[in-house]
Design brief:
Oligomer: single chain
Shape: globular
Bound molecules: adenosine-5'-diphosphate, magnesium ion
Number of helices: 8
Helix content: 25-40%
Structural class: alpha/beta
Mean pLDDT: 92
Order of helices and strands: EEEHEEEHHHHEHEHEEH
Radius of gyration: 18 Å
């Protein structure tokens, strides 16, 4: 598989009134096209900072980001970003919410409208297009937020604790949903989560960050024998609890240091 994202030597030091805070130190990794990678690590170790830097919203102190071999500076249209809050605009219908990104970029063409309509049909939201966000469940709102992000056809999706505001049952269903949509659309995903199970269930690899300043401490390859693996059925594999124990120990040790 071809390499889609390369993060080279990224470090980040925040300047604050109380002095410098080094959030990240020498982060290096490559991600293949279509791969799903999760990043876990102790609270405050720089996970959100790393995603913000890749998205172009936060400046890096050192290092470079490459997408398909091309160095990117600032915000790239190839990258979509999903946060914990779905950030849907309550006064806009579902349709005008999902069209927002295209509107902002001034590319609301016939083709782009048809593409978004197709996504709404495919992912069972078309009949809700004239409703308002508050009329939808948390899971459906998250799916709308995803479609709004997919509308601009990103190659890479960054998810920062995107499911953590949902209750447990909904979270499991929504991760399953979103996983299958992203696989179908052939999107590469970089997922930040504090939930070890979520990381294992969603990913091909899990990166473990050390406490601040965050460095990559370890990389775990996640593989199941399950046919047509998805985030729900892989939880039943005996390998799931083995991965869980390994990652739990690794995080626990670091958290106690
Ligand atoms: P995580 O997402 O892993 O919990 P963050 O990336 O949010 O961690 O933060 C890493 C460190 O950088 C923390 O110590 C945090 O307080 C600090 N930090 C994050 N954003 C800023 C900012 N805008 N200004 C100053 N310090 C920040
Ligand atoms: Mg965070």
């Amino acid at each position: 598989m071809e390499k889609i994202l390369e993060v080279k030597n990224i470090s980040k030091t925040y300047q604050t009134p109380k002095g410098e805070i080094q959030a990240l130190k020498n982060i290096n990794f490559k991600i293949k096209s279509g791969e799903f990678v999760s990043i876990i690590g102790p609270s405050g170790c720089g996970k959100s900072t790393l995603l913000s830097i890749i998205s172009g919203l936060e400046e890096k102190t050192t290092g470079e980001i490459y997408i398909q071999g091309e160095k990117i500076e600032g915000i790239s249209t190839q990258i979509g970003y999903m946060l914990q809050k779905d950030c849907l605009l309550e006064w806009r219908t579902i349709w005008s919410n999902v069209m927002l990104g295209l509107e902002l970029k001034g590319i609301k063409t016939k083709e782009s409208k048809e593409y978004v309509e197709g996504l709404l049909h495919k992912y069972h939201l078309y009949e809700f297009k004239d409703k308002y966000p508050q009329e939808l469940s948390g899971g459906m709102r998250q799916r709308v937020a995803l479609i709004r992000t997919l509308a601009i056809k990103p190659k890479i999706l960054l998810l920062d604790e995107a499911f953590s505001a949902l209750d447990y049952q909904t979270r499991i269903m929504v991760t399953n949903d979103i996983y299958s949509i992203l696989r179908k659309e052939n999107i590469t995903a970089l997922i930040v989560t504090h939930d070890i199970s979520e990381a294992i269930s969603m990913s091909d690899r899990v990166f473990v960050l050390s406490k601040r300043p965050g460095t990559i401490k370890d990389i775990h390859k996640i593989e199941f024998d399950t046919e047509e693996r998805n985030p729900i059925n892989c939880r039943e594999s005996p390998k799931f609890s083995q991965y869980f124990n390994t990652l739990w120990k690794e995080l626990g040790v670091d958290g106690n240091k």
